[in-house]
Amino acid sequence: MGKPTIDHGDQKKLSVLIVDDCSSVQVLHRVWALKLGLEVHIAENGKIAVDLHRSGASFDLILMDLAMPIMNGEQATRELRAMGVDAMIVGVTAYDDGPERQAFVGAGLNACYSKPFTEFNLAPLVQVIKEINEKSI
Predict the structure, then answer these.
(1) Of 27, 53, 85, 91, which is most buried, counting CB atoms within 10 Å of its CB?
(2) pLDDT tens, 95-107?
(3) CA-based angle 116:122:124, to the nearest 5?
(4) What percent of the chain has pLDDT over 90?
(5) Where are the chain's structural domains?
(6) Quick one: 36-135 is in which CATH superfamily?
(7) Nearest to 48 by CA among 91, 17, 93
């Protein structure tokens, strides 16, 4: 299997918000995102993600864990969607297809992946965002 690549072109750098309380997951997702040319931001829980948006921040992609302290991924996703955030929100969770995962998806995710989430999952998502951005220009 080859290494995923993204055509960076002359567009502005896409941004990703990694929302996960596990520092090792943050590091892995950050490395893959940087390899794909993304601007990376980290939030340790859903409340921080929501507060960032309330303060005017915006991101092209949000990678959202489900199980986090203070505000979990389901709550954060519901709140972000209620605020009108239209960024692609992708759930990344260790939960199987049980009720917790279904509720997470139902909160407004664009997609949901099981851990481990890799650069092979991330690259196609970034390409979709680039294609959407090109069409809206």
Answers:
(1) 91
(2) 887 889 999 999 9
(3) 135
(4) 78
(5) 36-135
(6) Response regulator (3.40.50.2300)
(7) 17
